[in-house]
Amino acid sequence: MRSYDFVCVGGGSAGFNAARTAVSLGLKSAIIDGAKELGGLCILRGCMPSKTLLYMSDVLHLAQRAKTFGLKVPFARADLAAMQARKKKIIREFADYRLQALQTGRFDLIRDHARFLDPHTLELSSGEKIHAKAILIGTGSQVAVPPITGLAAVAAWTSDEVLDLDLIPPSVTVLGGGIVACELAQFLQRIGSRVTLIQRSPQLLSDHSREAAAVVQQALSDEGMIIFTGTQLTKITQHPRRFTTEFLHAGKKQTVQSARLFNALGRVPNTAPLNLAAAGVKTRPSGQIVTNRWQQTSTPHIYAAGDCAGPAEIVHVAIQQGELAARHAAKLKKLSPVNYALLLTVVFTDPPLATIGELESALDARGAPYLIARYPFNDHGKSILMDANYGYVKVIAEPTRGRILGAEIVGKDAGELIHAFSGPLAMKATVFDLLRAPWYHPTLAEIITYPLEELAEKITP
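Now predict its structure.
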């Protein structure tokens, strides 16, 4: 039986960075990952392939709107074969780099699946047993298949199939209105599909504010997407050449038919094969593993990080969690837990939506006082000349000293602009600190100064 100080089950962002950190701290470490292809969800089937395709569809959309900018582009259409070739080349480079990093020999890479026999023992699919003083679970997530009549029996696409498309479907029904659903629904609409999106919640992007979600929904609708929110899915049927989706909307039965069906109803932790009960590891009703602020599970020497633990399915959070777990397992002193008050999120729709820090709902929940100011993109010089008129910048600050608490941007380049708040939030900067900085004119970033100036006038020390 092989023995280790620290074993990571899963070689994605959480596991890879945890193992790398553990080795640097002198722990004999290993990664166990039996996936056909190494690299993790982000590189292979998530962030990088989706954003590669989304950017290409953004370029296509701009070309199709050339007349707006006084340009003559007779015809622009998607060449999926060429798009896929570019995506595969880029992703292959990322995956090869990660594979090289996994195979450096600094830690053992065990290409197998694992399950717990007891809190310190993992059994591999090959039958071999691995003993570990500490274990990190970083097995990620998988597509959810909710108990909707007929859904499990039909050949619905997941994000995997959408990201590998080699044809443009004439019509697609998208089930769900979260980040993956909205991003890839817009991609499908822009390459030439007729898209109908059906969301169960009263709004798209239900984890975000109703105000920001409404901007994204308006943009999607303006591009021709048919959107139903506040629905109840009742039945899915597959026919030889089409899918039928039945649902209730505003108390009435609705039926939509399409050539393809895309299940984007969320993801669930990929922990079922691990036999967590044998290790005494507890989970929430959602399936996420319960952890404390040091990423410890209910069995203290077993840690969890990334999508399987939550609270956010975000790569930089998974990395922070994995590194923290390794440092805690190495018994380092003076550690700090992941600071979720600095949580940064980006939705890569067009317009994109980005948030950082604490927003109104969180502040209201803990009874914290705050001030808000916002400024629209359709009244800002640089965004107007770019014909980027959707959305706004919103800044939230503490009302007496003016410390920045959070920000929400929905509009052109929001995912880039939101980083103007990253350093200031981490440094507990104030509205006045940001206004002392230079902001060049005319730039998109300059729009941030307008809500800051409004807040500065409202703050009463």
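Residues 403 and 429 are 6 Å apart (CA to CA).
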